[in-house]
Amino acid sequence: MSTVPDHVPAELVKDFSYFTGPGMCPMRGGDPQGALAALHDGPPVFYAPNNTYDGYGTWVFVRAEDQRRVLQDAETFSSHRKIFEKALGYDLPTIPLEVDPPEHGAYRSLLNPLLSPKRVMAMEAANRARAVELIEGIKARGNDCEVMNEFAFPFAVGVFLEFLGLPQSRREEFLGWADKQFHGTPEERGEAIRTVIAFMQELVDLRRREPAEDFMTFVVQAKVDGREMTDKEAVGMGALLFVAGLDTVAAAIGFDFRYLAENPEQQEKLRAEPQGVVLAVEELLRAFPTVIMTRIASRDTEYDGIKIKAGDRISCPSMVANRDPQEFPDPNTIDLARPNNRHVAFAYGPHRCLGSHLARRELAIAMEEWLKRIPTFRLKDGVAPTTYGGHVFGIEDVRLAWGAAGR
Amino acid sequence: MKIRVVKEKCAGHARCWAQSPEIYDLDDEGYILDGDIDVPEGQERAAWLGAKSCPERALVIEDYKKDSAA
Ligand code: HEM
Ligand code: SF4
User: Pfam families this protein is in (chain B) (predicted)?
Assistant: First the structure.
């Protein structure tokens, strides 16, 4: 456990961890997001001395308004946190996640049009067909399934391959990497990261040699600030999409389907009125978000009288801001028709999730097609999925059944 | 009624546009167009809902009561 730095007053230190606190360890039937809602009864900012997977202390910002202020102020709160350094032995910044403004803006301007709301509409039909094919396959196999392995990951990986312009025949290979990267031991994770980096480097080489109509060709041919994109930049972009766009979508589908399995009356409502799915997806993103935004103070600063030193880690857990009673009336009640739902599942500020428009459509398509094709479903044999906290919250083993199976 | 657009706060969530496309227009990157918006009569409610959907608080509602009462 790291020691508490001198500038942190003792009364702001709290025995808290995303990894070991109540509700955070992997458990069946857990509610890691709900477990943190009680932080709103305590101080709005506190210090947790051992709150990262590698043992660092972090400040934790509880309220939505404070998180907004932190995340909008990228000058004071930097995003360059060297995510891959440990696995690779050198720093390979993921782009644009770990780049600060103003450089950040150049990369975003390049990438934004590729995932803009209008562009995402053009991907709609192919993505829907992918979901339908998977669900029909599940139906043909019987009256039950495990959502993560049979639907959520294959769907998210399929969308990802399509976006990258890679053949769907690589799905199994990618699924293996994704599984190790997100759910493996620390060694397996390191290995998976190295594999993904090596793959992206090969893809960069290939697209420099043989241009095609795809994402990586676009990236290697693009200019940033009037110069060519380097290999390191292109690899940092490709690898980030892998890390950012698979597990997040799959986990959201897992949490959504668990909620629906436990609330059959909500299933019926949405089946009767499928146009409610779009708002339902927003509310479930509010209630069960998975990402914790981390920043590093780039200089000494003071936040509402609290001294923060350059190098301090700042943690903005989206699942906590999303349960802020000052922002969301009755925050622990799930209301699938909640109006003005300005949740922070996709962050605030310049790093707002680049894939948010695509992710929203993926989640809506998944829910619409599932409800349309699968009759009232429940947790198979009443076995609740395994949930966990940590640096990205997650859910595993979401077994569902319908009809006569597994009563 | 007017919507003041604080362009530098816009992070491209596109919630305003998703809520009320008739009022809020996005550029090719998916960010709000610069410049304040004069809300046409009869569209106050749509404009209000769109502004209220902005996670960044980049859309400031001005003169709502005055105009809608008129
Ligand atoms: C439900 C699914 C998703 C959730 C909850 C989610 C959440 C987030 C969050 C909270 C951030 C900000 C992180 C930070 O500021 O530290 C982020 C950034 C990012 N996300 Fe997502 N994401 C999702 C899906 C996707 C998808 C499908 C893609 C790609 C197609 C994607 C690509 C990115 C990228 C590239 C960034 C970095 C943006 C930047 O730094 O400017 N995400 N995401
Ligand atoms: S909702 Fe706000 S942040 Fe999003 S596009 Fe509109 S103005 Fe920009």
Answer: Fer4_15
- DSSP code at position A118: H
pLDDT digits over B6-61, tens only?
999 999 999 999 999 999 999 999 999 999 999 999 999 999 999 999 999 999 99
Q: For A117, which of B14, B49, B54 is closest by C-beta distance? A: B14
- Give the pLDDT band (50/70/90) at residue A295: very high
Strand ranges, E, within A119-258: 144-146, 223-224, 227-228
The per-residue pLDDT for A258 is 98
Model confidence band, residue B69 (pLDDT cutoffs 50, 70, 90) = very low
**Separation of CA A286 and ligand 2 centre (Å):** 18
Number of domains, chain B = 1
Residue A407 clears pLDDT 80, i.e. is over it? no
CB B16 within 8 A of CB B51: yes
Q: Is B26 helix (H, G, I), strand (E, B) or coil?
A: strand
Which amino acids bring their CB within 6 angstroms of ligand 1? A 96-97, 108, 115, 240-241, 244-245, 248-249, 252, 289-291, 293, 318, 345-347, 351, 353-355, 358-359
Q: How are strands ordered across the β-sheet holding A77-78?
A: A45-48, A58-61, A313-317, A292-297, A77-78
Q: Print the domain residue range for B22.
A: 2-69
Question: What ligand has the least distance to the C-alpha of B21?
Answer: 2
The pLDDT of residue A165 is 87
The helices-and-strands tally (H runs, E runs) of chain A is 16, 15
CATH code of residue B64: 3.30.70.20
Distance B55 CA to ligand 2 centre (A): 7
Whole-number Å distance, alpha carbon A359 to ligand 1 midpoint, is 9
How far is residue A399 CA from its own chain's centroid? Answer: 21
Q: Which two tokens stand for residue A273?
A: 């009125």
All structural domains of chain A, each given as residue ranges with its CATH number in brackets, are: 10-392 (1.10.630.10)
Q: Residue A131: count other Cβ atoms within 10 Å of its Cβ.
A: 23
* Displacement of CA B26 from its chain's centroid (Å): 11
